[in-house]
Design goal:
The complex is a heterotrimer of chains A (258), B (267) and C (281). Chain A is built from nine helices and two strands. With 258 residues, chain A is mostly helical. In chain B, strand 7, helix 6 (169-184) and strand 8 form a beta-alpha-beta unit. Chain B is globular and about 60 Å long. In chain B, the strands form two sheets. In chain B, strands 6-7-8-3-9-10 form a six-stranded mixed β-sheet, sandwiched between helices. A four-stranded antiparallel β-sheet of chain B has the order 2-1-4-5, with helices on one face. The termini of chain B are far apart. Helices cover 39% and strands 21% of the residues of chain B. The chains are: A mainly alpha (258), B alpha/beta (267), C alpha/beta (281). The A-B interface holds A 163, 166-167, 169-177, 190-191, 194-195, 198-199, 202 and B 47, 50, 52, 72-73, 76-77, 80-81, 83, 85, 87-91, 101-102, 105-106, 135, 149-150, 153.
């Protein structure tokens, strides 16, 4: 089936954990190093996230994401290394330009944060069904309507892309050129986009009625077909993570008070 | 005379599954209905004719010319295809400008396009609706707009993809008349259809697709006589043919009118 | 036991001038199979939506008269208070898929979750409706991967799981291939045999003739006739109302074949065949 999700079922330890646990992990991986003000903690989380992803056999899927962000980080590294205000100590002299230690260290800090955030989100996104994640949030009191919008997007957008290709075919059949110069493409825009909008509008109205008659707006308390997937380990992990976050906040307050 | 020859056409989207498994058909001036279950390859077949898809192997010749050498836009001058859902193509805010779009794309002058569009609108019975926004029309009239939009392009071949969907009795009668008029003008009329009674009343030839192959091909009477083969393709006989079969007649009749005429002659 | 009572129902959509429904009065008993016919724009769909309360609560507009499901007057209750009693299935199966569920099984659960049905009860009802619609084998498939006929049966199953006493089907087979529509007709017949009231709008006139207990003919928002199929299809003015009688009735009229019990023309293959075979002897 076509789906936009990056998730893949590997029956791994991460797959079995509750989405909530993984969400708290994301929060912890970002907050703890920030509160503690210690870069090495972020490096620690980075390595740990990578180990988790390897264990789940999804590390390969992070490569394209890391590649793209790596490119951005590299440009930051170059710019900061060369031009950061306060650059004093030369590390690498290349004739007309020189790299400075201060700028490079600053950029390195950014790089660590960026990769840490990307990797911990990968832990969540690559191992969790989007619908499970939203369902878990709805259980915790998140609005079912907003939840519905999120989960349906994953399936309805690919369906709309299909629709788009039918419409392209229909207009091509009427002699419209869709390929070639920018001018041709711009001319093709309206005949392609208007039917998409109109037909999505019609579809959405019909779907809204179909949802309505299946009690989408019912006021009673919802139940869930699937049981909450928490396993005992989840609670242990959540406690450890929460304690970690609390400690790092405590640490931060103490350093302020001092 | 116009002909389309398909020679040993194979087609597949993915390596695993072949959708068309060697189709050999020559389409001539007879109006032709393509019938079969969903997934039998009917729509793929039509898209190949229209050049929207290219065969993996085999040739399609339009009046002797291989269409592989033509672009979709160039083919649009010769082959018109009316899509199932009119909402997939309508984008102008008046009926007239919607119908003029195709002719203008083909390079007609504005005056020519307008004349052609008016003629097409008259043919489908929408001549008083020129200034209306197509989305203010009901679905059956909107369908007629999409038919007029292709008819106005004055192509040699006109293909309909399931034109009778969501049409009531009068809508079907109108489409039937349009098809017969086009046929009388010497155009090749091809249609994918699910309504067997409609096929029996409107078409001269029927081609039955099943699992990527042509299961039956012949004049409608011959095709609809073969109850067992039709059932193999999950199809039914037309209502009148069913009655003939139940009564154990050797010969079937396709429409109530034929049946009644035969009975009255008998008496 | 759900009884439907409609009293002088009038309705006009917002921003329009014409009445979509114009003075409809009728009664439908529990367990009946009602076929609704008429040309496009005659008010068939609007009538269906008036029975579910979508008209007027969802569409607004001007409304007069009364519709009762048992003792409940539909315009006084919310759609979701009524939809566990009256279910409705629409023409396009694709637009009835929620898009938020990953399997057929979960898709059917959607309505039950919204109504807070307890989990074991939910599973029981889903299994029953999967079996009834003969789609249990697809329960782990993705909803959008089904064929049209399968998807429409899933839509029906998701309504049936809410255990309505009345099910309304608005041209449920018009987008399907012959096999898909046959699957849907057979499924609907099974529902009817279970005692569920079926109200079905359909252009496939031969099918309506074969399956309906009574046929409702609408034209221009008015109820023209509401009687057994033989009576309705034997009317001489049917085509003036934009409906063509079934093939077998047309043959019966031309050859003057009459069903003796009802003194009407035949409407089904069986009736026509019997009369013709009889005449041959």
């Amino acid at each position: 089936m076509k789906s936009m999700s990056l998730y893949e079922e590997k029956h791994s330890f991460l797959n079995k954990l509750s989405p909530i646990t993984k969400m708290i992990y994301v929060v912890a991986a970002i907050l703890i190093p920030a509160f503690a003000g210690e870069k090495m903690l972020a490096v620690g989380f980075m390595i740990f996230s990578m180990l988790l992803l390897m264990h789940s056999k999804v590390i390969r899927r992070t490569f394209p994401i890391l590649g793209v962000s790596g490119f951005v980080v590299l440009t930051v590294l170059i710019i900061q290394g060369l031009f950061r205000a306060g650059n004093e100590t030369v590390v690498l002299d290349m004739g007309p330009v020189a790299f400075y230690k201060e700028g490079l260290l600053f950029a390195l800090g950014i790089a660590i944060n960026v990769f840490n955030i990307i990797l911990c989100f990968c832990v969540l996104v690559l191992s969790t069904k989007p619908s499970d994640m939203v369902e878990e949030l709805v259980r915790k009191g998140f609005s079912p309507r907003i939840g519905y919008v999120f989960t349906s997007l994953f399936q309805l957008i690919p369906q709309m892309t299909d629709r788009m290709s039918t419409i392209t075919d229909a207009q091509k059949s009427r002699g419209m050129e869709t390929e070639g110069s920018l001018m041709i493409r711009m001319k093709a825009f309206l005949p392609l986009i208007s039917p998409v909008i109109m037909s999505s509008f019609i579809d959405t109205k019909e779907r809204a009625i179909a949802l309505e008659v299946r009690g989408f707006n019912a006021k009673n308390k919802k139940t869930f077909l699937n049981e909450s997937t928490k396993i005992p380990v989840d609670n242990v992990i959540i406690i450890i993570l929460v304690v970690g976050i609390v400690c790092s906040i405590g640490w931060r307050i103490m350093t302020w008070l001092r | 005379m116009n002909t389309i020859e398909m020679k040993d056409i194979h087609f597949s989207y993915t390596e695993k599954e072949e959708i068309l498994k060697g189709i050999n058909i020559t389409i001539d001036e007879r109006s032709t209905a393509i019938i079969g279950q969903n997934g039998a390859g009917k729509t793929t077949f039509v898209k190949l004719l229209k050049g929207l898809l290219r065969p993996n192997s085999g040739k399609i010749l339009l009046n002797g010319t291989d269409i592989a050498d033509m672009t979709v836009a160039a083919l649009a001058k010769d082959i018109g295809l009316i899509f199932q859902n009119p909402n997939d193509q309508i984008f102008k805010n008046t009926v007239l400008s919607e119908v003029m779009f195709g002719p203008l794309q083909m390079g007609m002058s504005k005056a020519q396009a307008e004349e052609s569009a008016r003629k097409a609108l008259e043919m489908v019975g929408l001549m008083n609706m020129e200034k209306i926004n197509p989305y203010d029309l009901g679905l059956s009239d909107r369908k007629l707009v999409s038919i007029a939009a292709i008819v106005a392009m004055d192509t040699k071949v006109i293909i309909f993809d399931e034109p009778t969907i969501a049409q009531d009795y009068m809508g079907k009668e109108r489409i039937k008349k349009i098809m017969k008029d086009l046929r009388a003008q010497g155009k090749i009329v091809i249609s994918i259809l699910h309504d067997m009674d409609f096929v029996a009343e409107t078409f001269e030839r029927a081609i039955v697709f099943a699992k990527g192959n042509v299961l039956l091909d012949g004049d409608v009477k011959t095709v609809f006589s073969q109850k067992d083969v039709l059932e193999e393709a999950y199809l039914e006989q037309p209502s009148t043919a069913k009655l003939c079969h139940e009564l154990g007649y050797g010969e079937i009749f396709l429409t109530p009118e034929e049946f009644i005429a035969m009975k009255q002659k008998e008496a | 036991m759900a009884e439907i009572k409609v009293e002088n129902l009038k309705y006009r959509y917002p921003y329009t001038e014409k009445l979509a429904l114009d003075g409809i009065t009728c009664e439908i008993k529990q367990g009946e199979f009602i076929g609704v016919i008429g040309k496009n724009g005659s008010g068939k769909s609007t009538f269906c939506q008036a029975l579910t309360g979508l008209v007027p609560t969802f569409y607004r507009g001007a409304y007069g008269g009364k519709v009762f499901i048992d003792e409940i007057e539909v315009k006084n209750v919310e759609v979701d208070d009524l939809c566990q009693k009256v279910g409705i299935v629409f023409q396009n199966p694709f637009n009835q898929v929620t898009g938020s569920k990953l399997t057929v099984y979960e898709e059917i659960a959607f309505g039950l979750e919204n109504f807070g049905i307890e989990r074991s009860q939910m599973r029981k009802r889903i299994d029953e409706s999967l079996a009834l619609l003969d789609i249990a084998k697809y329960k782990d498939r993705a909803p959008f991967d089904l064929s049209g006929g399968q998807m429409q049966r899933m839509a029906i199953a998701s309504i049936i799981a809410m255990e309505p006493e009345i099910i309304i089907l608005d041209e449920p087979t018009s987008q399907l291939d012959p096999q898909g529509s046959e699957e849907v007709f057979q499924a609907v017949q099974k529902l009817s045999q279970k005692g569920i009231t079926v109200i079905m709008v359909e252009h496939k006139i031969e099918k309506i003739a074969a399956y309906s207990d009574r046929v409702m003919l609408l034209d221009d928002g008015k109820l023209v006739d509401f009687d057994i199929p033989q009576k309705v299809f034997s009317r001489t003015d049917l085509e003036e109302h934009g409906v063509v009688p079934p093939t077998y009735t047309r043959i019966g009229k031309a050859l003057n074949l009459r069903v003796s019990e009802t003194d009407t023309y035949p409407v089904t293959l069986q009736e026509a065949e019997q009369l013709l075979a009889h005449r041959q002897e």
